[in-house]
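Please predict the structure of the following assembly.
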Amino acid sequence: QKEVEQNSGPLSVPEGAIASLNCTYSDRGSQSFFWYRQYSGKSPELIMSIYSNGDKEDGRFTAQLNKASQYVSLLIRDSQPSDSATYLCAVGQDSGAGSYQLTFGKGTKLSVIP
Amino acid sequence: EPEVTQTPSHQVTQMGQEVILRCVPISNHLYFYWYRQILGQKVEFLVSFYNNEISEKSEIFDDQFSVERPDGSNFTLKIRSTKLEDSAMYFCAITVRAGDPYEQYFGPGTRLTVT
């Protein structure tokens, strides 16, 4: 059973601070890792993807991957109230049958306090 | 970001009725997926569809579920005899790049309420 674990939060940070979100996964064969943002009542929105160990930066977002520790994180710099949402960690694996299904964590709710 | 629309946005149905949820990608995509999210729970994979056939399905996707792409564009999920526990948000997701089949973009979802 593939598992993706996240601290459900809520995580509260002041505006302008760095928000740090963490995720662990159980399947060592996982090949791709994603962070989605989900506002209440809305669909998941892809914000970051990472495939190799190390850091990947995109604007205010940095994703970090450590496959040996089966750990992936997301840093949000200069947090804004509009970043307040639930952040979903998703892990992908090629099933070899033309399917690349994602396994999601339950999400961490982030609240950025003005 | 690629556009995907889903209809209806909200569907209310009685237990035992059949529902069809539709996904309309704006351009031609390779892989299609259906996921669901029960209120307050994880997004769960239901089924993947590639080259006009099911490539993988989860344990949730039992005989009451079916998918098809009837006209080469719309991608539908049918639930034959709905149960109360089918109440959830249903999301269609697509991939756009052959070289990066993992990146999936979600449609806005259909909220299914079974009474």
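Residues 24 and 73 of chain B are 6 Å apart (CA to CA). The first strand of chain B starts at residue 4 and ends at 7.
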